[in-house]
Amino acid sequence: MKRAPMIVLLLAAILLLGSCGKSKEPPVPAYEELTGITMQEYHGDEPAGMEVSTQFSYSPDLYTYPGGTYFYNPGHSDWKQITNKKKQPVRDISLLLRFTDKSGTVTEVFLFGDDKYDYIEIPGEGVWKEKKDGVNDHMPYKLKDYRSLQFMWCFADPVMDHERPSLQENYNGSEKAIMLDIREGYADAWWDHYIPEDRVAERAEDVRYLFVVEVVDRKYRGYWYVPKTGQRLQNSYEYTYRMTLFDLAAGSEETLYTGTDINAAFDTPKEYFSR
How does strand 207-226 pair with strand 176-181? Predict the structure, then answer.
């Protein structure tokens, strides 16, 4: 009769060890081992966009959690490997991430998801899943980052380099638009701001129209101050704004607004599409 409790304890220990094994982090290089990360959108097994760098060297995670990985969220990560072949998820829309470590080894990882889980598939290694909890939700955030990087590489960088942006070779004719805000002298990723909802581009190959708002002149007006104390806060200027439209399909450029009213400048995309 004494053997029964021992058997129960032994079985519990085996189950515990088994569950711990399934919860191991996917074999992805840690930040401190990496020299670069790129990503590319895939539909099924076919690429649906260009490969871009994630510029991971600027990520605060690199310095805060150097031993962590791109999919590691302290206190929330709970990846489990899927060992049952019948429960392997279907990879429809995914991001292929290529991690290059200091030895030159490249690890390819497909990231995708559904309503309940994010999934990581490492060819030749297996598939892992993690339940979405409002914090992890890797796929929507990473996909948004990827498409924003596309816009930056394809359109913002040329504008900031004083070059004419061009239509993408794989343009799909969708007649969509994005807006680029360079009032502060750098590209602010307000891609969908002030663009009519039915015209907002999701990816680089959607873009025909590029709206660019910038400051073309400023005049000194004095300074802001606190009336009660007379304390001077900062200089005050009157700015002149310009909204330029690049029609990438037509290869044309048009100034839609020049003036001191920033709200009037922001209204021009809606007015343009309502013509």
Answer: parallel
Is CATH 3.40.50 correct for 25-136? no
In this structure, what token pair is assigned to residue 220? 């000194």
Backbone conformation region of residue 160, classed left if phi is above 0, alpha if psi is from -120 to 50, else beta: alpha
In sequence order, what DSSP letters do the residues of 196-244 get, joined into one string?
-GGGB-SSGGGEEEEEEEEEEEEEEEEEEEETTTTEEEEEEEEEEEEEE
Residues 186/160, Cβ–Cβ less than 8 Å: yes
Total-model pTM: 0.77
Q: Where are the domains of the chain?
A: 25-136, 165-273
Specify the DSSP class assigned to residue 53: E
Q: What is the mean pLDDT of the chain?
A: 86
**Is the sign of the CA dihedral 82, 83, 89, 92 positive or negative?**
positive
Positive or negative: CA dihedral 136, 137, 143, 144 = negative
